[in-house]
Amino acid sequence: MPRPKTLGEWPVLPGEKLAVVEEFYPGPWTIEGDGNIYSTVTGLASIDQRRRMVLVRPLTKTPIVIEAGDVVIGKVTGVQDKMAIVSIIEVKGKRLPNPFTGALNIAESSTRYERSMMDVCRMGDFVKAKVINTRNRLPILSTIGRELGVIKAFCSKCGRELIAKSGSLHCPNCGNKEIRKISSDYGTLRRGAP
Ligand SMILES: [Zn+2]
Hints:
This protein is mostly beta strands and 194 residues long. It is built from no helices and 16 strands. It folds into two domains: 49 residues, CATH 2.40.50.100; 108 residues, CATH 2.40.50.140. The strands form four sheets. Strands 8-9-10-12-11 form a five-stranded mixed beta barrel. It has a four-stranded mixed beta sheet with strand order 1-6-7-3, with no helix packed on it. The model has no long low-confidence stretch (mean pLDDT 88). It binds zinc ion (ZN). Zinc ion binds next to loops.
């Protein structure tokens, strides 16, 4: 939501742009990146004119901030040749009130040389990943590690949930075999997850 001309509080989501750094200093629950200031939480933003500061008042009791080192769970919402976009839905075991976008680069996806992101994850898959850094407000993810990678995936041919068997994924419906960077936690995503 754009900053209203009349000052006061306005609702913001994590990752939402609040101001540019030339205008204000980043205050509590904000982060600076790319010359902009973004909210790190769901809350109400406001301007402190006296201190030339933009700040956010979190609306949740224990606001969740995504930091380097955090293990997250997300849904793959976009796959390009060398990069995937992940909609992060859970951080350190806590569900986010609103998904937060992260990116997974192919070089950080596996210790093997992966030619295509399609061999790592595909649209609609759920992945467990670690946050490498959050510079420029975009969490950069890694799936290097035994427990990291795809934890739930669906058949590209018929849409049925795939089953992990001896290092690859099999469709119980049509027999299709697929490749992913599979997590040792494959199949453990709890019921009720989106
Ligand atoms: Zn199938």
